């Protein structure tokens, strides 16, 4: 702490500010910061100077809280990693359940935890508990009807209450109420234990104080439940194997083979989980799993985009293209310029190949499915899920159908892939606050030096001196929090930045094609939300201080698209035609002219023809070839042949109202540019 010596002023306030930084570096208690501000006031600091020091104190406390939250998240992830490693060991079921309940209680820092599994008669029995318990003991039968456990099982999702006996939002059971009252419990959370599409039981945690569970705590419990469910199923498999070995004493060889297979599955599963939790690359995990399964592997996300594949997995061209064989088009452009509606979007129709079908079938079935690939191989697919969320699909391609052990291993590999994808998402979310602040400054704080912004970008692996585009999207429904989480993951995956501005999501993405970037964002986010997404895009730019202008241009494109009735589509200045020219702050007349009549200009230059003059005369004469021929002093057949050539160059719709308007505007701009330059190309 500082003493109050010296007169208040810039020098003394600077000493107090430095002292606050020292407190921040030492992770001092919050009251020390308050004491420092009080000392400054007693030393004579007042007015604006004291206000600045108090503001510095508040920012320091905010940074301290940010560090504390990060340490808490890191501690939670570290505890989850340790738990996952514990669960990979071989236990009997009762020992495993004891490990799970102890880890759950320690992970959440609560008073009690227990796990219930269905018994032989269908009744739910407490198989293990941890913490001081007098009523909830091993063998306690959980009554049917009511309670948080039944809700969690019915919803296949965690359910919690901050104060069980005072919560009327669900149906309670008197027998359960009596037990809760006897234990003195208040806050309770129930998480279903599910493996593939079957329910295994319920994991509970509880505290004797009123407590509101945070989203990251619910996420940790969901991840723990997923790992616990796999471990329980694996342990049951081990126990069934041991039972079979004991019963099949007459066939020692088969029993040994079965035991070896189980040990192999357990070892591979443990290795893959440790690889995922250790921060390894998804491609490394897929290569290791491919060697164990004896086939080629592919991981796809929920919209059909390849996330990782082994080198020997066939490409799209190696699978039969049912839609192409039937003469169907893979995609078509939608643009209704005649009515003034400009959507600028592409409707992609998925090709009905065996690979596409089996990915859809796997999620529809909620478990592994198998089919022939039409090229001499067999495809096996398993959905990749994290809790109740679909993360993608794992596809195995082999020369023959997989055996039972391979199918079991395929499911275990899918769980390891899910852990890997969730870990990647957690990393993106952890860095999201810092990345969001950078894009906020790029968009709103214009006085920051470009060099400083570029340096901040490099620290986040974002090179702002390379070409980037801006995409502004507006979800037309769905969960805003889910859209924001997806945007953070998407921007992190592409080495870009994300910022949420009201109901809009702003993405700064590397590349030169704003229209293509907008369509990719729209396609993925629409699939995630299950609702349409409208987007505007602009760029590219290579200057940090130019990003604000590009953002405003993209926002105007989004506003124009909305005004034109193009909700659910995307647009950039180039796709909006002459509207894009008007909306852009840096009007590129040459680019607009080239997009409208560029092929005609090039043809005249290369062939020394007069198609441009013919086009001008045609519009001047009211679209009459005969009158145009009179103006040009040529035969009408000559004009007709030139118009046919123009149709070949500009496309069959150049005379339709919307495109004809752009052609005429381009002709006028081209002529005006040459007149202003003192030349005449006629």
Task: Report on the architecture of this protein.
- Mean pLDDT is 76; it is low at 3-11, 322-351 and 580-587.
- It contains 22 helices and 18 strands.
- The chain is of the alpha+beta class.
- It is globular, with a radius of gyration of 33 Å.
- The chain has five domains: 10-84; 95-241, GAF domain (Beta-Lactamase, 2-Layer Sandwich); 248-425, Beta-Lactamase (2-Layer Sandwich); 445-583, Reverse transcriptase/Diguanylate cyclase domain (Alpha-Beta Plaits), CATH 3.30.70; 589-676, Orthogonal Bundle (Arc Repressor Mutant, subunit A), CATH 1.10.10.2840.
- The protein is 54% helix and 16% strand.
- It has a six-stranded antiparallel sheet with strand order 3-2-1-6-5-4, with helices on both faces. It has a five-stranded antiparallel sheet with strand order 8-7-13-12-11, with helices on both faces.
- The longest helix has 41 residues, at 47-87.
